[in-house]
Design the sequence.
């Protein structure tokens, strides 16, 4: 998304690695988020378990879990690994969008496509998809994740203060952004499936 | 059971005309492949072909793309078939130690995040990662590719340290080779963009500091190393093994050559096949050929990048 580059790999459904966590009714979803050392402006040696990574891992996991039909795959595990190669704001959203594509590519059954987008409010204007510079300006930053066709919100995060009516505008803008991304993702998936079909000789 | 006509090709589509019979035969082949990997593999070797239908001495399709990561000073993406590596260099200023006050330094780090392979578990990094990291560091230093004196800014006070981070995004064999090419490519792309840096502890009492690093310049590389890993299985030499082949073959020889065709390093860490000198010489010849190929690919991508920049 712009200069933010993210790559996601999905492994599974496969055997649960830690038997004590095995769930007999549904699949276990695990997510790990990590940023490359060179992804931000200054090279920072990031520890694997640092707070921000853990928080974002949790957010992505819970967002995707809302959409994956986990009851179809009991006693198994689905791993989502996210690697950020270049960060320029909106990494959370880029990760969720990439994870949706990866899960679709893996053929894992989902209720709907989950897309996410950020929006902010600077200089009395709602802005869609803030980059790093705009984000560091200190204005509010709203991240929204929706199930596009079902029109349901699975993720909503905001920091900083915002009056209620402006908040509704900003959230609406973010939802529109999500829908636009969902259309694009759908086109890409359709194109990919057509290519696979033609390669298979069908 | 496995028919020899099928020459491997794990992603080969089932022949449409096969229908139900084709699907069943494909399942048997897959099962045979999982249950008896060595026999499956040797069956292919007898026909002088490998699991992905390559001839024994042929490496996979290689591609190099430079400048992938905008926020880094130099970056490259290298693909050997499915093996994917991203390398990025960030330059920072440091105070050089007293014994090498006119030299910069290079710090090499190789990571294998769990994204790269189903066998890497989060929380426990892959066994080979620190080994490859050390090998890369040794080869880059001993080949003399970078003249450390080039990285000096102010003698005794400031010099560049180049942090080279290599991330494996997909591990499908030949990790060291791909990592080395990505490191070399990233250095080729690395531009010292002449940004003004403050030297720690120098500001007191000085109103005007001379700008030391004014123009953009590229790092001068000499004696660029290229490597080739061959697997030895009984009497066959397999060039550029994939991960599946690596799990069956136990003996590997990695040869690193520089631009003048001199041997920088030979690495054969044990293994069940004891190689005669003739086999090692054969590996070195194959490595020479591969080095030429890699040099051409790298030069092509560099000129492609310069065309992009100037247009």
Sequence:
């Amino acid at each position: 998304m712009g200069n933010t580059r993210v790559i996601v790999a999905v492994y599974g459904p496969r055997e649960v690695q830690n038997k004590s966590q095995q769930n007999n009714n549904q699949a276990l979803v695990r997510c790990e988020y990590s940023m490359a050392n060179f992804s931000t402006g200054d090279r920072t040696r990031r520890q694997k378990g640092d707070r921000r990574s853990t928080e974002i891992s949790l957010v992505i996991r819970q967002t995707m879990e809302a959409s994956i039909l986990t009851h179809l795959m009991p006693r198994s595990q689905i791993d989502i690994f996210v690697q950020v190669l270049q960060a320029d704001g909106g990494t959370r959203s880029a990760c969720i969008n990439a994870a949706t594509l990866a899960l679709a590519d893996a053929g894992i059954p989902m209720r709907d496509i989950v897309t996410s987008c950020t929006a902010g409010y600077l200089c009395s204007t709602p802005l869609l998809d803030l980059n790093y510079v705009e984000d560091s300006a200190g204005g509010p930053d709203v991240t929204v994740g929706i199930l596009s066709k079902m029109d349901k919100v699975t993720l909503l995060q905001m920091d900083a203060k915002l009056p209620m009516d402006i908040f509704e505008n900003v959230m609406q803008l973010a939802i529109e952004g999500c829908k636009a991304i969902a259309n694009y993702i759908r086109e890409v998936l359709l194109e990919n499936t057509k290519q696979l079909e033609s390669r298979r000789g069908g | 059971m496995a028919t020899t006509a099928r020459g491997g090709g794990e992603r080969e589509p089932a022949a449409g005309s096969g229908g139900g019979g084709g699907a069943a035969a494909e399942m048997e082949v897959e099962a045979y492949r999982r249950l008896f990997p060595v026999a499956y593999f040797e069956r292919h070797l007898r026909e002088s072909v490998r699991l992905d239908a390559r001839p024994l001495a042929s490496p996979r399709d290689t591609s190099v793309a430079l400048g992938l990561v905008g926020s880094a000073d130099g970056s490259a993406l290298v693909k050997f078939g499915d093996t994917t590596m991203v390398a990025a260099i960030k330059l920072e200023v440091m105070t050089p130690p007293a014994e090498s006050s006119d030299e910069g330094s290079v710090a090499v780090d190789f990571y294998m995040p769990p994204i790269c392979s189903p066998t890497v578990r989060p929380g426990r990094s892959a066994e080979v990662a620190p080994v490859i990291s050390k090998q890369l560091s040794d080869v880059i230093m001993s080949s003399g590719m970078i003249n450390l004196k080039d990285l000096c800014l102010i003698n005794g006070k400031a010099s560049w340290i180049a942090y080279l981070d290599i991330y494996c995004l997909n591990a499908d064999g030949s990790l060291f080779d791909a990592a080395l090419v990505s490191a070399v490519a990233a250095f080729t792309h690395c531009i010292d963009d002449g940004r003004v840096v403050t030297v720690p502890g120098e500001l007191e009492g000085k109103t005007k500091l001379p700008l030391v690093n004014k123009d953009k310049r590229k790092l001068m590389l000499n004696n660029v190393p290229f490597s080739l890993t061959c697997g030895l299985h009984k009497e066959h030499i397999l060039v550029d093994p994939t991960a599946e082949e690596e799990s069956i073959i136990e003996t590997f020889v990695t040869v690193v050559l520089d631009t003048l065709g001199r041997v920088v390093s030979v690495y054969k860490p044990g293994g069940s096949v004891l190689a005669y000198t003739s086999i090692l010489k054969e590996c070195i010849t194959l490595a020479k050929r591969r080095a030429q190929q890699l040099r051409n690919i790298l030069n092509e991508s560099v000129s492609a990048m310069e065309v992009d920049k100037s247009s």
Summary: The helical segments of chain B are 19-35, 37-46, 128-142, 175-189, 243-248, 277-310. Chain B has a mean pLDDT of 78. The radius of gyration of chain B is 23 Å.
